[in-house]
Amino acid sequence: MRWRTKMAVVAAVLVAVxxxxxxxAGPVAATVSPAVMPGDRAVGLASTASxxxxxxxxxxxxxxxxxDATGHGSLNGVGLTAPVVGMAATADGGGYWLVAADGGVFxxxxxxxxxxxxxxxxxxxxxxxxxxxDGGGYWLAASDGGVFxxxxxxxAGSLVGATGLDSxxxxxxxxxxxxxxxLVTAKGALTVFGFSSGSWPxxxxxxxxxxxxxxxxxxxxxxxxxxVGVWLLGSDGGVFTIGCAPxxxxxxxxxxxxxxVSMAPTPDHQGYWLLGADGGVFxxxxxxxxxxxxxx
Length: 296
Known about the structure:
Layout: H1 2-22, E1 42-47, E2 53-58, E3 63-67, E4 84-89, E5 95-100, E6 105-109, E7 126-131, E8 137-142, E9 147-151, E10 169-174, E11 181-185, E12 190-193, E13 216-223, E14 228-234, E15 239-243, E16 260-265, E17 271-276, E18 281-285
Antiparallel strand pairs: 1-2, 2-3, 4-5, 5-6, 7-8, 8-9, 10-11, 11-12, 13-14, 14-15, 16-17, 17-18
């Protein structure tokens, strides 16, 4: 026993000497990317101001940071009355909002709270939130086309009571001002609010006239009120461009493990990320892939 003990001591000393000589600091804990927990699902994605990071939000209210994204808080462990359905980041990336299906709005970091629709008797669930460029307000959209404006976000109309609403509204996005926003339905009908004409910019096509291969799930603004474009996202990963929005690729030809649910552009709009319900992230254009929230 003494011989074995002496040999173990010698071995330990030898390992320590080799580690010092080779510059090895010994074993370290493996770096594990945050992942969507079992029973949860990813619902939203937002980019940092640098374009070198992003957050993934889940239905349970968890927020998973990647790259240079900083966690500003989450609803992890909070007993929500309705699942989270989307997120949006402030312009400087110093905070973000989460929005729930019952109209509840939750602000973190430098994102300011201006009110919510949680106290209203909603006729349909809320599906998304779009902030104004200065972060001084936001709009909420419901699946029946209802729009709720808070802070400096100006109400310019909604689809409630509109004739011919072909399918539920699935997303809302705002232009770079405080009065223009888009709503998209599952079949691709895109409606703009805030333009003086109250209609489409000239020359744009209506995707709802062509039956989509998969339901649309998101709309993302590109450009300004004078140089306008949008991306539309299908649940199969298809990306459709309208106006000046550039096409950087899609996930429509991939064998997806889960439907795609959200899209976020890079700050210069020369790329974008797509998010799957399982937390998978797909990067296109100048959008860097910085990790996935899909469980391994």
